[in-house]
Amino acid sequence: MRGGACEWNPADATPARPWRLVLLGAPGVGKGTQAELLADHLGAVHLSTGDLFRAAKQADSARSAAMEEALQYMRRGELVPDDIVIRLVEERRACLRLPCGFLLDGYPRTVAQAEALDRLLEREGLVLDGVLDYELPLDEVVRRLSGRRTCARCQAVFHVDTRPPRREGVCDHCGGPLFQREDDRPEAVRVRMEVYQRSTAPLIDYYRQRKLLIPVPAHGTPQEVFARSLELLNGRHPGAAVTAATPISAA
Ligand code: AP5
């Protein structure tokens, strides 16, 4: 399940150690894929701002003017204005308080959002454990993006070469149709890469200065990158990641 809304069942096991992490990296580097694997392993809730916007796009209910505006930015590959995104995350602050911890995927994406997150966490009495920064050469990132296919029904993510569905065009999990995201078209990808360099890359320094940055080489298979992520988390807090609790469902 891709992380949009956050649900946590208190009957499930609480992890021995809740992880509160941010996942950083260029569009298409594999943050969502890693967030899914990490959320299952660490028992943390996966919150993706991109998935929240995509869910709003699919919702049948009437959308607010602010959300309509946000979706226009998204289609072009530009960032949604900070005030809209910050409000969206503030509205979900209960997710951040859950005892299972959280993985923020796609947020923050600008220094203003990072500062807003700092303020929110301070108000809630929470601290970040680390910021996993996934690193990959640009040509490989573009290859990952251009081959991505997403399930229209359950949002599961595939890749035509590296993670093909069993039946072409059909989701392995729910049988829904697979489609190419509007913002994975070449012209939108170009805009997203420029926006990443301009607005999001400065967060690398922001978190390095706060001693939270954990650079993760993102080459190799998803499982290899996942193993590397755990190893790096474990190096930061020995024993914590590998003794994580049984998975907790995060919708
Ligand atoms: P969002 O959905 O967050 O998009 P993104 O950051 O551009 O990231 P992606 O979802 O494109 O890629 P990913 O890194 O998760 O890669 P994935 O795992 O899918 O945001 C979309 C838009 O929403 C933004 O452009 C913006 O408009 C708006 N928005 C969202 N948050 C915002 C914010 N905070 N502020 C303002 N605006 C915001 O992998 C990609 C492909 O590669 C898949 O096909 C996958 O199967 C494959 N793959 C993954 N790992 C590997 C591997 N190791 N080897 C081979 N293939 C792999």
> In angstroms, what is the radius of gyration?
17 Å
Name of the top-level CATH class of the largest domain? Alpha Beta
Distance between the termini: 6 Å
CATH superfamily of the largest domain: P-loop containing nucleotide triphosphate hydrolases
Instruction: Report the sheet with the most strands, covering strand number, pairing sense and barrel closure.
Output: 5 strands, parallel
Count of DSSP helices? 10
What's the mean pLDDT score?
A: 88
Q: Give the name of the CATH architecture of the largest domain.
A: 3-Layer(aba) Sandwich
The small molecules bound here are: BIS(adenosine)-5'-pentaphosphate
Find the count of extended strands (DSSP E, 2+ residues): 8
| SSE sequence, one letter per element | EHEHHHHEHEHEEEHHEH
Number of domains: 2
Structural class based on helices, strands and sheet pairing: alpha/beta
How would you summarize this macromolecular structure in one to three sentences?
This protein has about 250 residues and is α/β, with parallel strands linked by helices. The chain has helices spanning about 30-40, 50-60, 65-75, 80-90, 95, 110-125, 140-145, 185-200, 200-210, 220-235, and strands spanning about 20-25, 45-50, 100-105, 130-135, 150, 155-160, 180, 215. It has 2 domains: about 20-135 and about 200-235, P-loop containing nucleotide triphosphate hydrolases (Rossmann fold), CATH 3.40.50.300; about 140-185, no CATH class.
